[in-house]
Amino acid sequence: MNDKIKILIDKIQNAQSIAISGHKNPDGDSLCSALALLKIIELNFNKTATVIYDGNVPRDLDYIPLRKEAIFHTHIPEDAKYDLYILVDYGTRIHLGGAEKYVMDADYVIEFDHHVNNDFVGDLIFSDSDKASATQLIYDVSCQAQFIMNQDVIDLITLGIITDTGNFKFVRKGDVLRDTAQLIDRGANIPHLVNLLNNKDKKTVLVESETVSKTEFFMRGRLAIAMIKQPDYKKLDGRGELVLSLLGQIHGVEFVVLLKEQKENQIGISIRSKHIPINHIAESLGGGGHLCAAGAVVIDDLINVKTKIINAFKGM
Question: Which of 1, 34, 71, 175 lies 20 to 30 A from 61 at CA?
Fold first, then answer.
């Protein structure tokens, strides 16, 4: 057992109050990471942690294990202070959302993340950008620490891998498949877990489908840009992953961009690439992410942001 894991165990053992959160508008990996750690701490340390989130949790995560244990940040007392705060899958500090106050006020911060980050928040860092998901990283550390993991933990870790790899479509390294095989041997039922996620609102699917039908194509069809305006954004449950997935299936499309008008002059940007790194484009817009899956939020109007995106892709 390495020194970092010994410190992790010591900090959990000696903490009187523990909170856990991921990035704002949690996706499957972020929420499943937090809930898996919640249960790991309960099983191995007989302690109760608090999972905090900010933003919208997609409806397709409604039936994941322990979902009801996640608490919206406004339901946490403003003067709450934690001995130990654990951050998961948060990316960069601008994505902490309403949990930021509790993170910064905590006595000690531990983080588990698989995003590239040059500005860590934690005092103890478990970071590996080669991992397919934060849950995979948590699984690796938990195995090294010989933590007890029950069925809920196994299922949550597997769900994090499933969602962050797009049902294994984006797997780039064999270790995630080897870890998934271990999880299956430990009881993870992949068909059952995938079916848990088939739970979108009809209005969401219809909005995403209509958005795909109105997509514009540039660079001789290599760049697809889809846009969701504010009235429809309110119907969007999550990040528009269906839009990104469908457009990514089109022959000849190398890059997919989804622009979401979250508020007036506030545009959320999701960028995907089949092969060529695009994280530098997200970074140039104040965001970040993985090499081929990144995003940002830009304060500007929809048309201006679209123009910036087109210009950013010139020459690629």
Answer: 175
Contact 233, 262 (CB under 8 A): yes
57-113 pLDDT, tens digit per residue, is 988 999 999 999 999 999 999 899 999 999 999 988 888 999 999 999 999 999 999
Q: Do β-strands 108-113 and 266-273 pair in parallel, antiparallel, or remain unpaired?
A: unpaired
- Quickly name the fold that domain 202-312 has: Diaminopimelate Epimerase; Chain A, domain 1 (3.10.310)
| Count of Cβ atoms closer than 10 Å to residue 167 Cβ | 13
Instruction: Report how far residue 22's alpha carbon sits from residue 34's, in angstroms, rounded to the nearest whole number.
Output: 7
Q: What is the pTM of this model?
A: 0.86
pLDDT digits (tens, 9 = 90+) for 11-60: 999 999 999 999 998 999 999 999 999 999 999 999 999 999 998 898 89
Classify domain 3-196 at the CATH topology level: inorganic pyrophosphatase (n-terminal core) (3.90.1640)
Domain ranges of the chain: 3-196, 202-312
Q: Roughly how many angstroms between the first and final C-alpha of the chain, as a whole number?
A: 45
Both tokens assigned to 30: 């972020």
Instruction: Tokens for 159, please give them.
Output: 């769900």
Mapping DSSP onto H, E and C, the string for the chain reads CCHHHHHHHHHHHHCCCEEEECCCCCCHHHHHHHHHHHHHHHHHHCCCCEEEECCCCCHHHCCCCCHHHEEEHHHCCCCCCCCEEEEECCCCHHHCHHHHHHHHHCCEEEEEECCCCCCCCCCEEEECCCCCCHHHHHHHHHHHHCCCCCHHHHHHHHHHHHHHCCCCCCCCCHHHHHHHHHHHHCCCCHHHHHHHCCCCCHHHHHHHHHHHHCCEEECCCCEEEEEECHHHHCCCCCCCHHHHHHHHCCCCCCEEEEEEEEECCEEEEEEEECCCCCHHHHHHCCCEECCCEEEEEECCCHHHHHHHHHHHCCCC
